[in-house]
Design a protein that fits this description.
The structure holds two protein chains of two kinds.
Chain A lengths: L3 H21 L3 H26 L3 H31 L13
Chain B lengths: L1 H22 L3 H21 L3 H26 L14 H23 L14 H12 L1 H23 L10
Helix pairs in contact in B: 1-2, 2-3, 5-6
Classes of the chains: A mainly alpha, B mainly alpha.
């Protein structure tokens, strides 16, 4: 029998992998993908908790997170494309104009 | 029983996809790994009788978001292999240690609450779409309507970013 705890443990592992991706990678696109992975694992936690508690709010919360993530991806990729047009790089180490 | 088998198979697939995403040198490989993980998560939603969220996951994440990612990858830098030299010393080992520690802390703290918690997996919520719709358009109408504003603002922001033309350094005088 698969309890919601299993899904939550898996979501914790996926979240940590996503966090490692944000910390380790230097390609802004891959960092974005890692953030998406973290959001996905949070969604999995929401749905598992909703199933475990017998509440539908877990699924509605997941839907709202999906909406916010879609908006975030649109804006983020637009910013990336604008940065790339100016700098011709997606490496965050080279994007240090604000660093002084 | 079959549920456990499906869970174990797709848990392995999801973690493998996530690792491919993090370790892949080519951004396209990363995108395909993330796509695999997203499909696996959709399978988990189906296993938990969250059919509507599973459909939304496949359509929006695996469909729209990943297509957008692949499009931008093709536009920006598929031919460039990432410069793997690390600028900050000790960044990579510390990041890995922090991530493993985070997973350990979540698992240890969570195991008190989830695993030994009430033994669950109820029959599932039947007619999921109706129940989700009742919650979205009944209890959470205000939150649902505010997503309209969010999406409108995102669309306007994207258009503004698309019209923004950065000044090249040599154009500055």
């Amino acid at each position: 029998m698969v309890t919601p705890g299993w899904y939550m443990a898996l979501a914790a592992v996926l979240f940590s992998i996503g966090g490692a991706g944000v910390l380790v990678r230097r390609n802004a696109l891959v960092m974005f993908m890692s953030i998406e992975l973290m959001l996905n694992s949070v969604n999995l936690t929401f749905v598992a908790a909703g199933t475990g508690l017998g509440l539908i709010e877990g699924q509605t919360a997941a839907l709202f997170v999906i909406v916010v993530a879609a908006a975030e991806v649109t804006i983020g990729l637009a910013i990336l494309v604008a940065v790339f047009r100016g700098r011709a790089t997606a490496n965050v180490d080279e994007l240090s104009s604000l660093g002084g | 029983m079959i549920e456990v088998v499906v869970f174990l198979i797709f848990a392995g697939v999801a973690i493998a996809g996530a690792l491919v995403m993090v370790m892949g040198r080519n951004p396209v490989h990363s995108a395909v790994g993330l796509l695999t993980t997203m499909f696996s998560i959709a399978v988990f939603y189906v296993l938990q009788n969250a059919h509507f969220v599973a459909a939304v996951q496949v359509v929006i994440y695996a469909g729209a978001v990943m297509t957008l990612f692949l499009f931008v990858i093709m536009m920006i830098g598929v031919d460039k292999t990432e410069d793997t030299t690390e600028q900050i010393p000790w960044q990579r080992p510390i990041a890995i240690v922090v991530s493993v520690g985070l997973a350990a802390v979540i698992l240890i703290a969570g195991s008190r609450a989830w695993i030994t918690g009430r033994s669950i997996f109820v029959d599932g919520i039947n007619e999921t779409i109706e129940v989700v719709a009742d919650a979205l358009f009944g209890t959470w109408t205000l939150a649902f309507l505010s997503t309209v504003f969010l999406l409108t603002i995102a669309a306007v922001g994207t258009i503004a970013m698309a019209q923004y033309s950065p000044r090249r350094p040599e154009e500055e005088s």
